[in-house]
Write a structure and sequence with these properties.
The chain is an alpha/beta fold and 123 residues long. The protein has five helices and seven strands; from the N terminus they run E-E-E-H-E-H-E-H-E-E-H-H.
């Protein structure tokens, strides 16, 4: 896939969060994390030499630490209001996220002129 432009909508960040006053994860060799983003989570913690036990959840992930299911969550954060409402705090931003236009390579080869015209209108 090609990604020729950022649509500048849906901006947010993928972040690690935990209950306020929770233990920090930086010096841990093993953490339990609830997330929808298992591959990104494992990759991030592997770079920190920390083994991440990932619990795949969808929906209200913020409830998982309160229920004792996990120590931390990794989820998309826009304003942080949902975290605050659940007595949580953002501990680390893993990456910035936004919506992007993507184009199939074959479509780009066969419709390059049309696609470039469309992209040019928005740039």
């Amino acid at each position: 896939l090609y990604s020729p432009m950022d649509l500048k909508i849906g901006r947010c960040r993928l972040s690690i969060a935990g209950l306020k006053n929770c233990r920090k994860y930086q010096n841990e060799s093993h953490v339990r994390v609830a997330t929808k983003y298992v591959n990104l989570t494992k990759s991030h913690f592997a770079q920190k030499a920390t083994q991440a036990e990932c619990i795949k959840l969808n929906g209200s992930i913020e409830l998982a630490p309160k229920l004792g299911i996990c120590d931390f969550i990794i989820d998309l954060v826009s304003t942080g209001e949902t975290l605050k409402a659940n007595n949580m705090e953002e501990l680390e931003v893993i990456m910035q996220v936004s919506s992007r236009l993507i184009i199939n390579k074959q479509s780009y080869k066969t419709m390059k002129k049309d696609i470039n015209n469309i992209v040019g209108v928005f740039n």
